[in-house]
Amino acid sequence: MKTGDKLLLIDPGFKNIHMGILLFEDIARPDLVYTNAFESSGMNCGRVSSLNDFSHAIRHAFESARKESGFDSFAEVWVGHSGEHIRYDNVTEEFTLKNNTPITERLEKQLMKKAEEHIPGDAQLIHSFKQFTLLDGVRMVNVKNMMGAKVASRYHVVFSLKNVISNLRKAFRSAGITPSRLLFNGYAASKAVAHEEEFKLGCLVIHLGHSTVDYIVYQEGKPFMSGSINDGWASVIRDVAMELKISEPDAEKAICDHGVAHNLDTAADIPLSITNLFDETQQPTKMNLAEAMNARIIELFNSVRDQLRNTICRGHIAGGVMLTGGGAMTQGIAHPAMEVFGVHARVEIPSLSWKARDFSPALAPIIGMTKEASHQITPVRIPQRPASRFKYYFSDYLGRMFPKKRDKNDPESEPSK
Questions:
Q1: pLDDT tens per residue, range 140-155
Q2: Residues near 317 by Cβ (< 8 Å), separated by ≥ 6?
Q3: Residues sharing a CB contact under 8 Å with residue 278, sequence separation 6 or more, in sequence order
């Protein structure tokens, strides 16, 4: 990417499509110049449930974002990915070294590539992280150019089903958008709220979406477990609607206006005037609403705890539980999390160190993508000398006119021209 290029960030959800635009004017601190949310349709549990509806929704959001921001083209497009179809695996690869042969960067890349080949045949790689490296059984921070008898590295790989990715990319192409990269929303949300000290201590980040709940566990500074469940804040709204016999929009309004995720937070039985589906005015108390919410929220957290196999909940997340997403804005949401996981829990507000304002927890994936881009993408400055500038633009022209061929069986790749 060149200085002045723009990166489009998209988090497509069941209810809202969150968009952000990142402008690379400064190499160290790209500027998040635009964020907004648009109504979504045709998505459910991280999958495209209606190709036409989602294509229309993403096209509307894209055109609105271009009109409001004043930017027409983007160098890359990053898309958030969520849902129970996302899985993980921890893979260890070993290599026996010859005498007096140093470890090279090429060898480390070969080990990671072998680890990535362990994903199932019907899956597509999203992320791969190196957790640690052992040289002759001793953990090393950096083994490059070092010598030994055997090197072993363990990697955390995150992958998703190819058919899910294919449908998602097809919907984006119908809207005139070509995604450059997919990012797991749980990982992006963790980048938005967690700090290096919490990563090293061990922590659990939970992103409470409308139709999915994404989670990721860090140990010793690296991702250790990650995944998603097909259950989200929509189930809390649905349970409240059934308990109070009201419509789901009214239930969502009641939760936003009076909802408390823990019934001990309500000091008094404050009556609420609500008209049910039978046009009858009823007066459930704030305690009734809190009890209905609390029961379902505990079930959500229990589902995440069950995915973690109950073995790391206490001893391996000393940094606590961090909650993000639209559901994290509910009053008292940290109490049931502490009750289920048995460690300190808190709601984290996404922020950027180079901007003097915080963002809504619902924007955690967008903010996490911004931080990821600031660390992994270095804008290329255009040469100033005429000869170097001509060579630069000529190489760029050849790259656009004759792109490298890609694997047709890879759904992450676009067909070559």
A1: 878 888 888 899 999 9
A2: 202, 203, 204, 217, 341, 343
A3: 245
Q: Where are the domains of the chain?
A: 6-84+163-194+350-401, 87-161, 228-347
Closest CA to 372 of 79, 106, 3, 91: 79
| Spatial distance between the Cα atoms of 219 and 226, rounded to a whole number of angstroms | 12
CATH number 3.30.420.40 given to 228-347 = yes
Considering the entire predicted model, what is its pTM? 0.85
**Which strand (E) or helix (H) includes residue 182?**
strand 181-184
Domains 6-84+163-194+350-401 and 228-347 share a fold: yes
Neighbours of 214 (CB within 10 A): 33
* 6-84+163-194+350-401 maps to CATH 3.30.70.600: no
- Full DSSP string of 61-113: HHHHHHHHH-----SEEEEEE-STT-EEEEEEEEEEPPTT----HHHHHHHHH
Token pair, residue 76, equals 């890359």
Q: Report the 10 Å Cβ neighbour count for 242.
A: 12
